[in-house]
Each structure stands twice: as structure tokens, then as C-alpha cells.
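Board work, copied verbatim: Nicotinate-nucleotide adenylyltransferase
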Amino acid sequence: MEITIKGDKEIDNVPSLKTKALRINLNENIYGTFAEIGAGQETCRHFFRAGGASGTIAKAMSAYDKDFSDAIYGAEDDGRYVTEARLRKMLAHEMNLIEDRITREKNPNKIFFTYANTVATIDFAKQFKGHGWVGLRYQVEASGDYNEIILHLRFKETDARLQQETLGILGTNLIYGAFYKYNEPKKLLRYLYDHLHKDQVEIDTINFSGPVFKNVDNRLMSLQLVKNGMTDAVMFGPDGTNVLPAKIFYKKNILALRGSFRPVTKVNMAMYEKSFELFVNENKVSKEKTEVVFEITLSNLRAEGEIDEQDFIDRADLLCSLGHSVMISNFQEYYKVVEYFSNYTKARMGLVMGVSNMIETFDEKYYRHISGGILEAFGKLFFKDLKVYLYPMLDSKTGELINSENLKVHPRMKELYKFFKYNGKVIDIEEYDTSIMNIFSREILKMISNGETGWEDMVPEGTAELIKDYRLFGYTRKPLTLNRKRLK
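↓ predict structure ↓
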């Protein structure tokens, strides 16, 4: 029996948590369980207090003791409990119990759900603020397949009780949105913050799956997380799926390359390949534990005005097809990127820059919003175990090759630049190809839009074929021969 929404109009007043929980409870077909580990029974509490829960909540439980938890859900190979794998085991186990214990013959119209979370709140020393995985497996019609929404959150509050309350609010919003806003996933995402502030909790990963979300591109949903200010950065793996940044960066050496990649060019790949060779030969760097990430900033995505989602997908598809991880961030300044990485690793990091980017980095106008100005920013940038790998450029007027030795920053910044340069923080990439230095993404994009030829030689091998076959970046000269799908 499909859930219908009668008279559910968009209104300015956000429904109260009690109203949301009561609406779920009063739907005679919705029926399921709550399994919450690590932060109390905060979500199901809202449903019990709202009234009418006896027909909705089959069971509410917390297996706090690790031995009991392992006995119920099985032990994890890594011995951890606050993981996506643990959450998925909880959802599968609890849903199997419902299916086993509630017969369809007696309950033909029941719409089953199971809500679960596994959470670690702030520790006593207040050094670790806490995080958790939250998920919902559910139906929207009694005979239908199951859908899933799984997200990862990070607490920003510094009190365990407040974190518990925040989790309960978020869980209630998730359950309500899943049943009554599933046909509008972008709105569902925004409604997760009803009665919450973004200073309370961060959602840095979310994945939708199942028949009602078959047309949802989870990369676009991740983009919404950054766009809505719910997190500062999201990541996609080489296979194009959303990944948790903490899982990718934890205790890793990180090499990051920022750009528009619209489209990716031979210069971009040369910068990556040559800097990677230098980076993995550094002391304290292990090739096996090095993570390379291509970063696109939100401001870059907005360079042409409002964000073009198809353009964003085109860029992500190309980079992923070349075997790279992609990060979308809300960091305009490089020091913020380094601070972000430092949340997950103390290992050596590297940034890959072109000369023009390096010159911009020393422009004071980008640091007027912080009290310590450029000195504070550079203290944060270079205090970490960081090196910048600089790819040279040819002066368009003189033809002179510009590198770290002869680039010109503002006279007031000259001594500051020298300090970092001669303390080994700036490394020149000395293996370069001058024949490709005048290749720019914007020129390639213009040629593609105008139906010109010749741009094919300016992009990495195989990239031109992908752009043509999938008609990326508005390519239209060649008739479409393949249905658009995720590039592998």
C-alpha cells in the first residue's frame, strides 16, 4: 500500500518533532524497529512521547555492551563498532527479524522499516568530539522492495547530552522525510536540519539506494551537502561512489591538486604525474599509504553563475574515469584545505600548484577576514608537515620560463615568500614539457562549444573519446551512439 500525502503543502512553519513523530505513529501501516547504540534511545524517545507508538514501534533496543553487541550482530574484522559495516549489519539483522516474526498473511498492508545508529559521543577529555553512522531501511508499499538512506555525521557540540539530543532530532527528521519526502530527495536532505543548526552537527556522507531513489545520483546529493553548508567537503572514489573522507585520509600521506578540470588537460596530468614522483620519494612518505585527490572548489563550480549540475557530473566522470578520487570543497584558501586534511592525518602532505596559483596565494586580499591576516594563514599552512610542488609556466609576453626562483609576488610579500622558499617548503617540478604549457581548460571548452577540432590533442589519452561518446561539456558534433551512464 503506497503512502500518499494528502494536503501536505509547503509551509513556512516547520512541523514540530512531536507532529512529525505523531504523523508516523498514526499511519496504521508504518511498522518497524529502532536499534540505537552509543547515544541512548534518543530517536525512539520522540516517537514514544508523541503518543500512539504501540502500533508503530515493534521493538526498541540498545546493545551497549560490546560482547552483547557482537553476539547479536557479529564481530567486525577491525574490532570497531562505529562503522558503516556495523550499521549495515544492524539494518539487515533487524529487518530479517521483522520479516521472520510478522507474517504478511496477517499484515498484508504493513510497511516495514528499521532505523539504526551506531555512535560515539564526545569523550571525557573533550579531545574527540564524536561521530556516528545513521541509517534507515524501509518500504513505501507493502509489496515493494526496500530502500535505504545511510549517512555519516560529526558532532560539533562539546557536551554529550546535547549531542544525544541532536542525534534524536536528526533521526526523527530522517524517518519523517524518508516516508513523506522521498519523492523530493533534495528537500529531504534540507529537512534533516529542521530544529537543528549547522553548528550542532555536520553530515559529510550520504547515500540513497532502492527503487524510490533509482534516479538519484548520490554525487549530486553530496554536492548538495556542500552547497547547503552541511559539510565543508565530500569525496567520490574512482568508481564514482560517495566515500567517507575520514576513511580515505586516515593516517595517509595526501597529495592534492586543485583545478577546474573543465575538462582535465595534459597539463593537469603532467602536474600530477611529476609531483607524485617527487612526493613519494620524500622522507616520511610511503607510496602504499599515499592518497591522491583532485579537488574542485564550490566557488569554481559557481564560476559561471549558478552551479550547473550536469557540468559538475561531467568533470567528476572524467576524473574518476582516469582512476582518481575527487573532492568537492568549500575551501577557497589553501590553508583551509590543509587544516581539513590535518583532522585525519599527521603524515606529510603535498599541494600541487601552478605559478599563477602560487602568486595568488601570496595576495593579502584573500586573508582580510581573519584577524592575523596572511601571517596567520601561512602559519596554519606551513606549520604542518607540508610541501608545495610548483609547476612552471611560460610568460605569455616574453616566453620566459617562470618557476620558484624568478616568480614575482607583491613587494610586501617578498621576504615572506623567501622564508618559505628557502626553508624547503616550495619544490620546483623540474621535469616539464614546454610544448603543453599553453594548454588551458577554458580554451578547450571554448573549442568544444564552437564545434572546432584540435582540442583532442590537448587532453589526456582516451579523454577525447569519452567526451565525444558521452557528449560531455556540450559536445554535439558527433551523434550520440551510447546511452549516458557512469564512466568506468
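Residues 357 and 390 are 9 Å apart (CA to CA).
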